[in-house]
Design goal:
The protein contains 17 helices and no strands. By secondary structure, the chain is an all-alpha fold. Helix 5 packs parallel to helix 7 and helix 9 packs across helix 15. The longest helix is centred in the N-terminal third of the chain and has 32 residues. The radius of gyration is 21 Å and the shape is globular. The chain starts with a helix and ends with a helix. Keywords: Cell membrane, Membrane, Transmembrane, Transmembrane helix. Belongs to the UPF0718 family. It is found in: Cell membrane.
């Protein structure tokens, strides 16, 4: 088994650990800097984002390990429809069976794609699963009890955007988008089959631990940068960017990207803007966030090719914007 990511990072972390007391000793104002009033909100926001996401990431890596351990590649290939339209429909509704937050979705889908799930179905599942599931449905209905149209637009727009992007991936993506090739995965699997512990409980938890370390470092970096943005940029200044019709959509979509909220709780944050913004911008906030936020972008970049992630992000933003404007025009209050 190769060394863990944490061990690889230690040579870079240790010098900084020794540098802090040296700076504090040489310059006492560094000590006062550590007591700045803004550091406490920063720590609070960071811990809130991280602790909110970790349980779902843990669930995701455990499900990923179960798929690695129990599900054969032939079974994945058999259930994948030959035609793209049924495949997209199936992938869009898988979230109803696997209600996993976006933080835990990527390791699950990566494992499914390595076992033979077509790329277009995997991408559709990543985009739709965090929204089209019973937990998020119930949370959105509870957050907007007097406005059922918000829940309907959120679910419908998420389904439409994920299905369209899935069909686009099927039609135009010819190179497998994963950074790790299927050939290297199959070669590692053949090597592991010669090891008598490969299908034991120890092997299960080793795989889960490797997956957790691999994904959690991107979650930590994303949560820290997101916390810095939320702490040091006043919300009033962000609200000032929402002047005008197009500005309200841009603001709510950018706000969803920066906040990086879990899809099970973002609806309750959106209620704070229900008296300021209409249906369209609220729908843009509720759909874009689970599909594409800051910490999720880093996790996508850890799994998929950079060019693919850039194109995927552009498609998500464009389709969510067009769809939310259409929803405002058809059902706006």
């Amino acid at each position: 088994m190769k060394n863990s990511t944490l061990l690889k990072m230690l040579p870079f972390i240790i010098p900084f650990a020794f540098l802090i007391p040296v700076l504090v000793t040489l310059s006492p104002q560094w000590l006062r800097l550590l007591d700045m009033g803004q550091l406490q909100p920063l720590k609070t926001v960071f811990m809130g984002i991280f602790l909110e996401a970790v349980p779902f990431l843990l669930i995701g890596v455990l499900v990923s390990s179960l798929l690695q351990w129990l599900v054969p590649e032939t079974w994945i290939r058999k259930i994948a429809p030959a035609h793209p339209v049924p495949g997209v429909l199936l992938a869009s509704l898988l979230g109803m069976l696997f209600p996993i937050c976006e933080c835990g979705m990527i390791p699950v889908v990566r494992q499914l794609m390595l076992k033979g799930m077509p790329a277009y179905m995997g991408i559709t599942f990543i985009l739709s699963g965090p929204i089209i599931n019973p937990v998020v449905l119930a949370a959105t209905m509870m957050a907007f009890p007097s406005h059922p149209e918000v829940t309907a637009v959120r679910m419908g727009l998420a389904f439409a955007v994920s299905a369209i992007i899935g069909l686009i991936v099927y039609a135009f993506v010819r190179v497998h988008p994963l950074k790790r090739s299927l050939l290297s995965f199959n070669q590692q699997k053949q090597n592991n089959q010669t090891h008598r512990h490969s299908r034991t409980w120890r092997g299960f938890f080793v795989h889960a631990g490797d997956e957790f370390l691999d994904m959690s470092k991107y979650l930590i970096i994303g949560a820290l940068l997101t916390a810095c943005i939320q702490t040091f940029i006043p919300r009033d200044e962000l609200l000032s960017l929402s002047n005008g019709t197009v500005g309200s959509y841009a603001f709510m979509m950018g706000f969803a990207y920066i906040l990086s909220l879990c899809s099970t709780s973002d609806a309750f944050v959106a209620t704070a803007f229900s008296h300021t913004f209409t249906l369209g911008p609220l729908a843009a906030f509720l759909v874009l966030g689970p599909m594409l936020d800051f910490k999720g972008t880093l996790m996508l970049l850890s799994t998929f090719r950079t060019k693919f992630v850039a194109i995927l992000g552009l498609l998500i933003v464009s389709l969510v914007l067009v769809g939310s404007i259409a929803a405002e025009w058809l059902l706006g209050r």
